[in-house]
Design brief:
This protein has 118 residues and is mainly beta. The protein is built from no helices and eleven strands. A hairpin with a 3-residue loop joins strand 9 and strand 10. The protein is globular. The N and C termini lie far apart (40 Å).
Length: 118
């Protein structure tokens, strides 16, 4: 069983920064994709950023230039550095890991709240 535990959320003023961390434990296939998603009230969950085991990254347009995703393959950690935060970044942020071996394995954390005040 895979467990993902997020930390680092909180309340921050617009223009501030937060760093989210996600610790993954359990049996995780080496070639995987780790990602951060977010869900704001009344909206669908959306991808913020993803990173492969070979550290290839992908960002939502809203995150480009402000957020940086990184990972530590030894520690099975993924991070999201968020700078220049805006009120519209307010959401619950979820950590995700997935891989194909050969079926899809897809795991989620419980989420961490990020609130950006104006």
């Amino acid at each position: 069983q895979v467990q993902l535990v997020e930390s680092g959320g909180g309340l921050v003023q617009a223009g501030g920064s937060l760093r989210l961390s996600c610790a993954a434990s359990g049996t995780i296939f080496r070639n995987n994709v780790m990602a951060w998603y977010r869900q704001a009230p009344g909206k669908q969950r959306e991808l913020v950023a993803s990173i492969t085991s070979s550290t290839s990254t992908n960002y939502a347009d809203s995150a480009k230039g402000r957020f940086t995703i990184s990972r530590d393959n030894v520690k099975n950690m993924v991070y999201l550095q968020m700078n220049s935060l805006k009120p519209e970044d307010t959401a619950v942020y979820y950590c995700n890991v997935k891989w194909f071996a050969p079926r899809l394995y897809d795991y989620w954390g419980q989420g961490t709240q990020v609130t950006v005040s104006s």
